[in-house]
Amino acid sequence: MNALVPLPVVLPLCVTGLKLAIGPRLHRFQRFISIAVLGAVLVLSVVLMVSADRHGPLSVHLGDFAPPVGITLVADRLAGLMLTVSSAVTLLVLVYSLGQGMADRDDQAPVGVFHPAYLILVAGVSCTFLAGDLVNLYVGFEIMLVASFVLLTIGGTATRIRAGSTYVIISLFSSVLFLVAIAMTYAVAGTVNLAQLAERLQEVPPGVRTLLEAMLLTVFAIKAAVFPLAAWLPDSYPTAPAPVTAVFAGLLTKVGVYSMLRTQTLLFPGHRLGDLLMLAALASMVVGILGAVAQTDLKRVLSFTLISHIGYMVFGIALAGGGGISGAIVYVAHHITVQTTLFLVAGLIERRDGTTELTRLGGLARTAPLLAVLFFVPAMNLAGIPPLSGFIGKLGLMRAGVADGGGWAWALVAGSAATSLLTLYVMAKVWNLAFWRDAPPGAEEEGVVLESAEDDDTDDDTGDDEEGRAPGSAETPGSAETPGSGEASGSGEASGSGGPAEAGSGLPVPAGAVVSAGFLGQSITTTKHLPWPMLVATGAAVALGLSYTVLGGPLTTFTQAAATELLARTPYIEAVLGR
């Protein structure tokens, strides 16, 4: 069984090599192998999770080199659960992206660019969850960073390049800090293997141990978008294509949370920075949800709620007890699924109505009842309405806070309740504006374009034939005539705006204008008939979120066992060191 541990990392990388060798050919075959490999990773993840639950942590030393020389991969209950949830979510997002690519008549971008980068991203996430040493954890982060930059900037529009550049700069800074922390750890302990560090760091002077803990927490807090290190997120995620935004928002920040969980329980038990973590958790909750209240664009609303709800997970880690750790694990699994689902729904709304700006939306509950249901269920789940899984996770965290009884714990219990109520308010606001009220006057009909590719500094002297036209975009598939739109004009000017609409600005522009909503920046028009793979994938994500409610008892039991195993540390250490 131990031999299966590397496969969630190896399989996506091998298939990526095969796809790059094939090139932009055999589109159906490439779609099939992409789905097949992620399906296989999901099955492997379930097998590893069940085996770790029944028999204890599984470990493998690559090349049969023992620590501290070799690379160690470990699958315990926590890693198995994270692998299973992430594999299910990435599979659904891939199906969603296939629907978007087919709807855009864009064969080359998903197959030639998106799929290889996406599979590398999946391999990086799996490597992070299975890493048994700090260097391999760093490698997993860097694999994700490389793939993330490609996915964020796919299409090469100015807005995406700008947002992707910000993301990469912040990520590179955290990577440098991570390398420094790894070097310092090796200098004081003579190893970077997590099992060996769990023993040796207890002999390190308290001041040095606290410094190492602070550096690692800073690195992981940047990755997890914990306030005040989260300013990069709201401007980076919403500009990417809908599938990219969904998987980034739902999954990548949780990799940082997972790393905090792993290192705080294994390397720094009884950590001395608990109060600082509680302060960061409370600030993330409050600042994030207040930011969401102030937004009028759905993607930005969801981005700020993402920051806010990271605070719940940090709350559980800061409590450092069985109840807090268990509640944090439940909430991580819940939030990966629900946040991904909400961003998928946002992509459907944008596909249908040409914008996610709430002031331009309305009447969707009447005109698109299926879309309304797909939004309402995860929205209430995020708000923590009983008996949904969001309520289960929040209740576990708040009970752990009450049991702790400290001043900061009580402050976080109150902050958790207030944040949950404000989340409900934000979701009700979105529901009222986008779904419940009548459509505002002048709402765009079918045929408007999702985004303009016009640069901010478009030259006003540009000729009529070139005005608003991105290089090489005149022949793009989506620039063809659309129902009720007439022939493509390429004017690039928003109706009634008096000027070009910026990419990602949420301003609908006339059909046929040069746009960047697709994978490669081709023109894309809205449609009331949403592609069925996108609907099926979103519906399956909603069902996955509901399954946590149906299986709430077994899930809670599993996470309690995982928390006990994490706090005990001995099962992990013995599995890795062979004692």
Automatic annotation (TrEMBL):
Pfam families in UniProt = Proton_antipo_M
Q: What is stated as this protein's family in its record?
A: Belongs to the CPA3 antiporters (TC 2.A.63) subunit D family.
* Statement: the UniProt record of this protein carries the keyword Cell membrane: yes
Keyword check for GTP-binding, yes or no: no
Domain NADH:quinone oxidoreductase/Mrp antiporter transmembrane: where? 131-415
Recorded hits in InterPro entries, A to Z, give: CPA3_Na-H_Antiporter_D, NADH_UbQ_OxRdtase, ND/Mrp_TM
- UniProt-annotated stretches for the region Disordered: 444-505
- Kindly report the protein's main subcellular placement as a broad class: membrane
Compositional bias segments (type: Acidic residues): 444-467
Gly residues: which segments have biased composition? 487-501
Q: Which UniProt keywords apply?
A: Cell membrane, Membrane, Transmembrane, Transmembrane helix
User: Record's superkingdom?
Assistant: Bacteria
Q: How does it sit in the membrane?
A: Multi-pass membrane protein
Query: What protein does this entry describe?
Result: Na+/H+ antiporter subunit D
User: Per the UniProt record, which residue ranges are transmembrane?
Assistant: 32-52, 78-99, 111-131, 137-155, 167-194, 214-233, 240-261, 273-294, 301-322, 328-349, 370-388, 408-428
The places in or outside the cell where this protein is found are: Cell membrane; Membrane
